[in-house]
């Protein structure tokens, strides 16, 4: 029996979008807001540097490895139910983290956050997909949702900076509780239940393979920050590739696949997934090193660092507002080709930062160009990635989009960190006697990371140009098959 999800009344759709955007914001900002809290948390809980790294890694590990399973659970169990349970679980985990009295308690809380985020995130995107099945409203809804995804990281830096400066590090986690309460109330009022019908049996072999494979990849890339030649790094990455290859083989043969291959083999959606991964790697990696530059080299406070990042978010929002109105006329190919080029130019501009650090001349122009480029990508990206997906697969397809961003971020962070470390060593070898050698080495490392991020972002342009070519009509229809020409 085909799925016939109840669609909210038109007047309620935008309220529901606000609820979904709030959930998206909470999940996205949690990655950066916790980074702001880590220095104080490390001192108070007596964490080692390794423990501090695990606070970030364990969340990415749980979130990234369980996303596809979370998407299928949302499809079969019910998207509204999954959204609410995910939100409640995320809030409880955040409260546990905020009340942590030792390292173990904080790490357990972060793992739980990742588990429930893996259920919450694909449910939210799937609900958005079926609530706005087509037309110009779909474009605007996905534009808003995408802008939250792009700007949420910077918002997290600002909010985390304010909380760390005027309250305490615990509130960087506890702030999720009131946000979740508002979102849960909104879900109960505006959300209707929808679920997949027909074949709803879980693919146990596929689930085991993909969870283990994604976990190996995420963990492997996190270990790569300490050296790509390490035996555990190579072993984990190789194991992840083997397990995911076995997963694809299983999915091609079972009658109830966890991730139907029809979701990813479509040329347009496949291209969108690649662009999503490259954007995630460049954005997450680029922002991380920019904050390091603000705080360590320029001596900015956490709050001032967040404020210094805001122009990028503001430009993203303006670009989204403009582009969402003209996208039906110009189609997605142009912005998804030009966007990566502009984003790469902005990142490359940031590679010219200096120890003296003139924000208005060396940073702000790069942030503005980067924001325009990211806005051009975010408006059509998730719309294109989910175009033509059957309602039965909405949850798992949504999870695949988020998974590409998560894996891309892990790859980018590991790659940039390796280049950053290499650049520092090279600089110190040539300038050991310089009185500013320490800060000069750091800036050299940040510049190398920005150049690499720009190169990855630039790769997205030809992918978009040659693969992402749906017609304007297909874009407006949304839920129908995507034109391949």
UniProtKB/TrEMBL annotation:
GO terms for molecular function: transmembrane transporter activity. Signal peptide: none annotated. It comes from the Bacteria. It is a multi-pass membrane protein. GO terms for cellular component: plasma membrane. The chain crosses the membrane at residues 14-38, 53-71, 83-101, 107-130, 142-162, 168-190, 202-221, 233-250, 271-296, 308-327, 334-355, 367-386, 407-428, 448-468. It holds the Pfam family MFS_1. Keywords: Cell membrane, Membrane, Transmembrane, Transmembrane helix, Transport. It is found in: Cell membrane. Residues 16-472 form the Major facilitator superfamily (MFS) profile domain. PANTHER family: BLR6921 PROTEIN, MAJOR FACILITATOR SUPERFAMILY MULTIDRUG TRANSPORTER MFSC. This is EmrB/QacA subfamily drug resistance transporter. It comes from Conyzicola lurida. The lineage of its organism: Bacteria, Bacillati, Actinomycetota, Actinomycetes, Micrococcales.
């Amino acid at each position: 029996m085909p799925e016939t999800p109840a669609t909210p009344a038109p007047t309620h759709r935008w309220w529901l979008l606000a609820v979904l955007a709030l959930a998206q914001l909470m999940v996205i900002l949690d990655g950066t807001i916790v980074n702001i809290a880590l220095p104080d948390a490390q001192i108070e809980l007596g964490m080692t540097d390794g423990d501090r790294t695990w606070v970030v890694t364990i969340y990415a590990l749980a979130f990234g490895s369980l996303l596809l399973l979370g998407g299928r659970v949302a499809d079969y169990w019910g998207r509204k139910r999954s959204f609410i349970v995910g939100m409640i679980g995320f809030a409880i985990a955040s409260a546990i983290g905020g009340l942590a009295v030792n390292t173990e308690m904080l790490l357990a809380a972060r793992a739980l956050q990742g588990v429930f985020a893996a259920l919450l995130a694909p449910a939210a995107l799937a609900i958005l997909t079926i609530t706005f099945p087509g037309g110009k409203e779909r474009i605007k809804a996905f534009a808003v949702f995408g802008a939250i995804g792009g700007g949420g990281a910077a918002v997290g830096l600002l909010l985390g900076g304010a909380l760390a400066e005027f309250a305490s590090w615990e509130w960087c986690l506890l702030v999720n509780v009131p946000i979740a309460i508002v979102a849960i109330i909104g879900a109960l009022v505006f959300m209707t239940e929808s679920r997949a019908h027909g074949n709803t049996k879980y693919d146990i072999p596929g689930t085991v393979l993909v969870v283990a494979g994604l976990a190996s990849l995420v963990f492997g890339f996190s270990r790569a920050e300490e050296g790509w030649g390490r035996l555990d790094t190579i072993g984990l990455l190789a194991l992840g590739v083997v397990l995911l290859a076995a997963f694809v083989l299983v999915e091609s043969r079972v009658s109830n696949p966890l991730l139907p291959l029809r979701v990813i083999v479509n040329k347009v959606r496949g291209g969108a997934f690649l662009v999503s991964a490259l954007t995630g790697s460049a954005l997450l990696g680029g922002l991380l090193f920019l904050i390091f530059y603000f705080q360590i080299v320029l001596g900015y406070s956490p709050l001032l660092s967040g404020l210094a990042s805001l122009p990028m978010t503001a430009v993203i929002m303006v670009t989204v507002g403009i582009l969402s109105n003209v996208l039906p006329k110009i189609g997605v190919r142009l912005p998804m080709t030009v966007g990566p080029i502009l984003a790469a130019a902005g990142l490359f501009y940031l590679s010219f930062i200096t120890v003296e650090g003139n924000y208005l001349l060396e940073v702000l122009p790069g942030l503005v160009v980067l924001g325009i480029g990211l806005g051009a990508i975010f408006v059509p990206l998730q719309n294109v990635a989910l175009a033509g997906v059957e309602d039965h697969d909405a949850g798992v397809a949504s999870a695949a989009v988020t998974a590409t961003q998560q894996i891309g971020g892990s790859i980018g962070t590991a790659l940039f960190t390796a280049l950053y470390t290499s650049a520092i060593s090279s600089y110190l070898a040539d300038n050991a006697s310089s009185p500013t050698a320490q800060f000069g080495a750091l800036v050299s490392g940040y510049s190398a990371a920005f150049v690499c991020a720009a190169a990855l972002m630039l790769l997205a342009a030809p992918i978009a140009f040659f693969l992402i070519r749906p017609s304007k009509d297909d874009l407006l229809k949304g839920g129908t098959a995507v034109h391949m020409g």
